[in-house]
Specification:
- By secondary structure, the chain is α+β, with helices and mostly antiparallel strands.
- The chain contains 4 helices and 8 strands.
- A hairpin with a 4-residue loop joins β5 and β6.
- The termini are far apart.
- Bound molecules: zinc ion.
Length: 201
């Protein structure tokens, strides 16, 4: 009886550890198969990682921008954690820092939200705000300046209503284009099949 209890306890500990590890580092059940997608693409970067191992999905034309951002992060020894990339219509946003815009570039796959990590610490929205920017280490400042100098990118820290964890390509300057991309992405996403369902096409 005692032996059974020990085995059961070990089993429960192992099971709990696996669940806990997956929840915090590798939420594989949120990953969709993207092979059949025509508009949305998955990004797997080196210095860009997804929050809790979720999937980074963006419009395919944004992939080159992510590669650039990834390189800026790498050159400054930073890791970016992406909290949000493409967002489907009606998706609830937990812990939203800025009230989501109706014509948000996230809804068309043209935006990411991030936190920055260097070897010493993590930098969140408050740390990146105008009033605190002088206190940032040089490599974080350099990284942000690279984003600002890239003509195809906007950094939310420069917005009137600042949103310093946001980077986008402003497809929403044209509502017509935004609507097309939003619908294409949303359609694809809603028909998406989770990767773990390997037996479905
Ligand atoms: Zn954003």
């Amino acid at each position: 009886m005692k032996r059974i209890l020990i085995i059961l306890t070990i089993f429960i500990i192992i099971f709990y550890s696996i669940i806990s590890y997956c929840y915090h580092n590798f939420q594989f059940w949120t990953h969709l198969k993207t092979e059949q997608f025509e508009t949305l693409r998955e990004y797997n970067g080196k210095n860009i990682i997804a929050f809790r191992g979720r999937q980074i999905l963006v419009h395919k034309s944004v992939i080159p921008r992510l590669i650039e951002i990834d390189n800026y992060a790498k050159n400054n020894n930073l890791i970016l954690t992406i909290n949000q990339s493409f967002r489907f219509n009606g998706q609830n946003i937990s812990r939203a820092i800025v009230k989501p815009a109706k014509f948000s570039n996230h809804l068309a796959g043209f935006a990411i939200d991030f936190n920055i990590e260097d070897e010493n610490r993590k930098y969140f929205s408050n740390d990146l705000k105008r009033n605190n920017r002088n206190k940032l280490p040089i490599n974080v400042k350099k990284f942000l300046n690279k984003i600002r100098k890239n003509k195809k990118l906007r950094w939310g820290g420069d917005f009137n209503k600042e949103d310093p964890i946001h980077i986008d390509t402003p497809i929403n300057f044209s509502k017509k284009k935004w609507l097309i991309y939003n619908q294409l992405c949303d359609n694809e996403f809603s028909k998406g099949i989770p990767k773990w369902k390997v037996w479905e096409k």
